[in-house]
Design a protein that fits this description.
Blueprint (H helix, E strand, L loop, with lengths): L1 E5 L2 E5 L13 H10 L6 H17 L5 H6 L5 H7 L4 H8 L10
Antiparallel strand pairs: 1-2
Organism: Demequina mangrovi
Pfam family, one: DsrC
Keywords: Cytoplasm
Length: 104
């Protein structure tokens, strides 16, 4: 496991830069992660990220785009609009969670 420095502190990340320690995340860090991948966070973005965090705390797994739609109520089309091209990967990255299962 490696570390990197973001938001003025060291955080644990995997080889692709995804956080590996759930408790190291906060919204300041999320904003920096979003900036790194070119996502301008809006209240809608935060709603999705907060859903992902809460769902992960409950299930222990990162929600797929299908689950974010079915359980979170965020249509897949909206996810693609908010997090273009690879919404599952981008949402989980900003939320400080592992990539969802099946995400390339």
């Amino acid at each position: 496991m490696s570390t990197t420095t973001l938001a003025g502190r060291e955080i644990h990340v995997d080889a692709e830069g995804f956080l590996t320690e759930y408790d190291e995340w906060d919204e300041t860090l999320a904003q920096q992660l979003a900036d790194q991948i070119g996502i301008a966070m809006t209240p809608e973005h935060w709603d999705v990220v907060r859903f992902l965090r809460a769902d992960y705390a409950e299930t222990g797994q990162t929600a797929t785009t299908r689950r974010v739609n079915a359980v979170g109520g965020f249509p897949v089309k909206q996810q693609f609009a908010l997090f273009p091209k690879k919404p599952g990967k981008k949402m989980s990255y900003i939320a400080g969670l592992p990539k969802p299962a099946g995400c390339v």
